[in-house]
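hiii, so i know i said id send this last week but things got crazy w the move. better late than never?? heres the sequnce for the chain we talked about at the cafe, plus the structure i predicted for it. fair warning i was half asleep when i ran it
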Amino acid sequence: MARPAAAYEAAVPPRPACAYTSCYCEENVWKLCDYIRSQHQYPLEEFYAVFISNDRRMDYHVILLHVSSGKQNFIYDLDTVLPFPCPFDVYSVEAFRLDDSLRPEFHRKIRMIRADLYLKTFASDRSHMKDANGKWQKPPPSYPCIETAACFFCFLSCCQAPPRRLWFHLLSVL
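okay and structure toks below
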């Protein structure tokens, strides 16, 4: 008799126990990656920071994708009411409408950065969160800015997505 497949074990604590600052999703995801690295539960190479933006870069969001060695992949998004983690197929249907309903300049662009590389290369001085007068648009996290030896402010390079629509390509691959 075959044994049932083991249930997926979340790679991070429940949502309320995660490091979180509203409007700093790129840092929230960095903190999730850092936690995963410290726990050695899953290979860090199975995780991706996923930057979602558009050509105008008027807004962006960052989520964490786990391309699991099991049959199901999962999204970790601290800013959604969807489950945490959320199965990829559920998240992709519930969180996004088709680009067809959006004006072309707002079509989503996706950039995936493997978690181990994200931890090594992502940095932010948080200047993108200040207005023209240097005042915070939203309160910053209580911890110091994320820096790397190579970069103090690499945030914009992470946000620049490749020039093709990738999210629905991901649906067919995953």
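btw Residues 30 and 119 are 7 Å apart (CA to CA). thought thatd interest u
miss u guys!!
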